[in-house]
Structures are given as C-alpha cells and as structure tokens.
UniProtKB/TrEMBL annotation:
Protein EC: 2.4.1.-
Domain Glycosyltransferase N-terminal residues, every copy: 5-44
Family as reported in the entry's similarity comment: Belongs to the UDP-glycosyltransferase family.
Organism phylogeny: Eukaryota, Viridiplantae, Streptophyta, Embryophyta, Tracheophyta
Alphabetical keyword list: Glycosyltransferase, Transferase
Domain of life: Eukaryota
Pfam families hit by this protein: Glyco_transf_N (PF26168), UDPGT (PF00201)
InterPro entries, A to Z: Glyco_transf_N, UDP_glucos_trans, UDP_glycos_trans_CS
UniProt name for this protein: Glycosyltransferase
PROSITE patterns noted in UniProt: UDPGT
Length: 472
C-alpha cells in the first residue's frame, strides 16, 4: 500500500512554521509523504536542502500570500497577512490540493489561523486537522473572545492597576488566574476592530476541524487540554516538539528564516556555569528606541553577563527600522555579546546560561521550560500575555513584567533570577523540565499522542483508499 500523504499549511511566520516543520519531520519519519506549503517568501528563505537530506519524504511547495514582494511581513505589518492569505491564497491553495494525485491527501493539517484550509478540505472531501501553535491555555482563552465581548471585558482599557488586575470570571478553569491585563493583546482593541474580529472568526472556524494538534504536554496543561476536548473530537498534545524529534537541533536551525550566528556558542563556552542571561524578543516583536534603552541600561546596571539576539529590524523609530547605536555594541564587549540571531535551543541548553529574558512567545516559553531555565517575561502581542501569566502564576517557572518597561525593574528582576533569590522558581523549573522530558520518552503522554495521531492518519488513508477502490 502506498504511504499516507499529508498536506501541511502553516501561517507564514517563523514561530508558526517552526513547530509545523517539526511535526512534518515526525510524520515523515513514520513513512508519510508530506507536502509542506509555505508562502513564496518563506519558501525561498527556508533551508530546504537540510530537510531533504534528513527527510526525503518532505516536498516543499509555495503559494502567493497576496502581498507585494517588498512588503516587510514582520513587526506591526504581520497582521496584513491575516487578510491577504484568506482572500488570495485560498483559491490557489484549493487548486493546488485538487491537482494532487500521488496519492491524494489523507488529510490537511492547517495552522489555526489559516482556517480557510478547513473550508478547502470540506469542499474537496478531505479530512481537516487544525494545529494551534499557541499553548492550550491560550487556545482555550481565544475560544472565549466572543463571551468576553458580551461580558463587557473587551475592550480592556488601560486604567489603574486595580482595574487591570481585576480577575476574569467567564473563562472556566481560569477564574482565579487570569486578570484583565493577562488577556491577549487583541482584547485591548475595540470589538469592531478587524483584527479582533479575525481572531473571533478563526476560533469559531477551527471547530469545524476533525481534530486539534497542540505543541504542549498533558502534565503541563491538563485542565486546558481537558476543556478543549469538549470542543474537538480528538486533541493531540504532542509537545515539546523540539525534544520529540531526534533531529531537533538540526530541525530548529534549518527551520529558521533568519541567518543564525553560531559564534555565540563559542563565546558561551568561555563563560562560567549559569553566569549568562539570554535575551531575545523573538522573530516579530519590535521595540521603540526608548524601550530598547530601558532594557539596555537595566541589563548593564545589573552587572550580569548577557547574550542578546537583536534582529536588524527589531528597533523602530518614526521612520521604520533603525540600527543599534555603534557605541552600545562596542560597550557590550566587556560583559555582553550581541548577535543578529542565535541558535536558541542550543543557547538555552548551554550550561553557561542561567535564565531567559523573553517576549513569552510559545515556542520560546516551551523551549525554556524543556531545559529548566527560568524566565523573565515581557509580553507584547498575541498569546504572550497569557503565556507570561501561566509562567509566573500557574507553573511558577519565571517572573512577569508585563506593562512595565523601566531599567530599575529590569535590573531588579535580572539580579533576582541570576542570583537565585527565587527558590520556588528554581525548584519548579527543574521539576517541570523533568516532566517535559518524560512526556516524549517511550510511553510518555506526548509519545503516546504522537503514535495515536500517526495511527489515526493511517486509518484516514486506508479508508480513503478503500472508498476509491469501491468507486473504481
């Protein structure tokens, strides 16, 4: 019998492409044929050769995303992709899938915010599975956006600390955890805002999928996963994906759309154990010059060594992206090191690294959890506010400084983390890292879920083959 053919469609951003590529590798290692469909820009930037060497069963395809070639597709302009892909990419994707006959797809696995693929799958009679690249807790929160609007919790207006710290009571399971300031950043928008409407619509359309895949593990988010099982016929918690795949380090590096500076690993080799703070705000977040300077002086004043990944487009002024002042780069050489982009998993796993100052993106959060490195969280957009609250209050593996950006706070939290002043955090990071590793070992919860996903896709494939035989 021919091997199952799976089509995978990520949202065209680094943080979405990476976990879906890791899933593609796992399915390829199980003998599946994979068609991985990127937008044209990501398709050109991805190191496809590295994946083909490890997984010859993965074919990379591309479709246009509807934006001009010179569109930045990063920072604040990333949201333009929400609307262009739905209008321009949808019919092209449908034609691409309809033309596949070697063999026809057993299923389509699409990003949770590319749910037009679920419509395409329904039109073509193909099962659809949705992959939400957020945490289970944040995914559950997004399913309550409409209820939050009805309850008057949206828009969250920046008021007093008392107003912002009021607990949210209409999300089951999170009544004593989530405050107004911890809701996703889009909850600070007017209910009529197109971006908020987009997420409400996408969350609703996800429920038409036959199953949900999450890059998390049962032991970390059991309550939220249980709630999501009331919405979907099947939920597969298969993370942390970076530890589930045997070729995870290679997967991470070759899934990067940015040029990685490997030299920072040699620099870390020369540093004492647990002496360096790793700093990265991910592949999309931008800082204005004032914010950048507050972080800079907070780090310098802490008198701790740091490694900071600063993308060329990370700092913005009124005219767009701007460079790091040369004098700051020169001044970093005494205690710190600046790189354009780092091999993050290797950095976080390095013995010299004691902790992580992060934007709380889900990939970064899960990578830090997996290697037992505590976090200082400064969330900005999307799921990051929810993640940072989970880190500080639910899992106790870090500290949350959302809605604050001043050098004195940065200095204090860096000292607290680097000097081990929070014993509760240090204890939790070790315990949860152990659970993360156990989940992907033979017989662990994620290992079982991955195997169940593979078997269920094989069943879809055999059912489709049987139907085709009867028709023939």
């Amino acid at each position: 019998m021919d091997s199952p053919h799976v089509v995978i469609l990520p949202f065209p951003a680094q943080g979405h492409i990476k976990p879906m590529l890791m899933l593609a590798e796992l399915l390829s290692q199980a003998g599946f044929t994979i068609s991985f469909v990127n937008n044209e820009q990501s398709h050109r930037r991805l190191d496809q050769a590295a994946f083909r060497r490890r997984c010859p069963g993965i074919e990379f395809l591309s479709i246009p995303d509807g934006l001009p070639p010179d569109h930045p597709r990063t920072g604040p302009s990333t949201v333009d992709l929400f609307f262009s892909t739905n209008t321009v990419s949808k019919p092209i994707f449908k034609n691409l899938i309809a033309s596949m006959s070697r063999p026809p797809p057993a299923c389509i696995i699409s990003d949770g915010i590319m749910s037009f693929a679920i419509d395409v799958a329904a039109d073509l009679g193909i099962p659809a599975i949705t992959f939400r690249t957020f945490s289970a807790t944040c995914t559950w929160t997004y399913f309550h956006l409409q209820k939050l609007i009805q309850e008057g919790e949206i828009p969250v207006l920046q008021g007093s600390d008392e107003d912002m710290d009021k607990l949210i009571s209409c999300i089951p399971g999170l009544e004593n955890i989530m405050r107004r300031r911890d809701l996703p950043q889009i909850c600070r928008l007017d209910p009529e805002n197109p971006i908020l409407k987009f997420y409400v619509t996408e969350s609703s359309k996800m429920t038409k999928a036959s199953a949900l895949i999450l890059n998390t593990f049962e032991e970390l988010e059991a309550p939220a996963i249980s709630h999501l099982r009331t919405i979907f016929p099947a939920v597969y918690a298969i993370g942390p994906l970076q530890t589930a795949s045997k070729s995870s380090a290679a997967s991470y590096n070759s899934s990067s759309l940015l040029q990685i500076d490997q030299s920072c690993l040699s620099w870390l080799d020369s540093q004492p154990s647990r002496s360096v703070l790793y700093v990265s705000f991910g592949s999309v977040i931008v800082l204005n010059r004032d914010q950048f300077m507050e972080f800079w002086f907070g780090l310098v004043n802490s008198e701790k060594s740091f490694l900071w990944a600063i993308r060329p487009d990370m700092i913005w002024d009124e005219n767009g992206p701007s460079k790091v002042p040369e004098e700051l780069i020169m001044g970093a050489t005494e205690r710190g090191r600046i790189v354009g982009w780092a091999p993050q998993e290797d950095v976080l796993a390095h013995d010299a690294v004691a902790g992580f100052l992060t934007h709380s993106g889900w990939n970064s959060t899960l990578e830090s959890i997996s290697v037992g490195k505590p976090m200082i969280c400064w969330p900005v957009i999307a799921d990051q506010q929810v993640n940072s609250r989970c880190v500080s209050e639910m899992w106790k593996v870090g500290m949350d400084m959302k809605d604050i950006c001043d050098r004195s706070t940065v200095e204090k939290l860096v000292r607290d983390l680097m000097e081990g002043r929070r014993e509760d955090i240090m204890k939790s990071t070790v315990e949860i890292a152990g659970l993360a590793q156990d989940s992907v070992r033979e017989g662990g919860s994620s290992d079982r879920n991955i195997k169940k996903l593979i078997e269920d896709i094989k069943l879809l494939h055999s059912t489709k083959n049987a139907s085709r035989t009867i028709i023939d």
